């Protein structure tokens, strides 16, 4: 069964789906999702129960309390609903536990008016978990992008090794054919025996070249197997029949408007967006610590109604309003935390600007390299045409007896070298395009 050729798109899809580094990055994102769920759980309902019973002594009171509480994502607020009931006698200092025979039902609300009004630990943890999930998404993009660049490089190296093997195989076949012709000439007395020895030496040289090319192709295929995997994720080393006959079709970035393309890439670049997310995390933390410098002023309200009629003074609806004030007198630790975070934010801003400038420089150099590689590929192709014409002319002169095998071998070697250089230049051009797409995180956009 002959395996179909491996296209670049197939290879990159296989790497994205099965490469271990990509799978590890996906698990880091799954971890961040679990953290977000845990942070959201900070706003879940909570049920608390308390039972107190006097089992000995003069008083025999029993008290049961059930309380349902839920935090709200605003003003550090909490709402609660409570039911409590008591039975028996209590000492005077525990009269707060006494209820009617049907118990007491109550609802209430508490919230912060100063410290905790705009931000609190629970809200901070929730937002930080959301931002961390976004960060792991950018980290996964970074890992995938790096893997796609590595896979593309391995693919181009494999194609080059395959083309080199093909050239050296053809070169060896020509030498073997010439060996037969020369042996016949020596037999007929048209050529000297030493010419046959020279040709044998050339034949050995070309066999050595082919042997090296075979080994290079085997190594390139082994490297490619890291990214080419079966449905179970196991590496598969491709064979020679899977080498495509044509180079992958890639976008012609050299025709893009340079300034427009650079602006689009910089504006949407995942590494810069990840730094913006990190900055937001620092801003949120600074805001939280700034809140801690404020006085703590909490407001609470509670409505309660006893059920039953055992205790006369507990029959009416009760409403309780409370205020609690706490003022920090020494705030040096809080101020130090805020100052430290402000310095970290400024540092991150400088790093952001530096990264943006570096990316722009690398993209501009990449475009220059692309134009250069295109010119080099055109020159290499011209060299193929010239050396092939020289080879054909030398062969005709050899057939006419006006040349010798030494000159013909040189022409053939030069033509073979030119073919390899042309293939290498074409692959170099494709690789420069892929590196530019990788630098701009656009490989999946164009290779699909």
TrEMBL record:
Keyword check for Transmembrane: yes
Coiled coil segments of this chain: none
Any one Gene Ontology cellular component term annotated for this protein: efflux pump complex
Keywords: Cell outer membrane, Membrane, Transmembrane, Transmembrane beta strand, Transport
Predominant cellular place of this UniProt entry's protein: membrane
Annotated GO MF terms: efflux transmembrane transporter activity; porin activity
InterPro entries the UniProt entry points to: OMP_efflux, TolC-like
Subcellular locations according to the entry: Cell outer membrane
Superkingdom field: Bacteria
Family, per entry: Belongs to the outer membrane factor (OMF) (TC 1.B.17) family.
UniProt-recorded name of the protein: Transporter
Organism: Oleispira antarctica
Lineage start: Bacteria, Pseudomonadati, Pseudomonadota, Gammaproteobacteria, Oceanospirillales
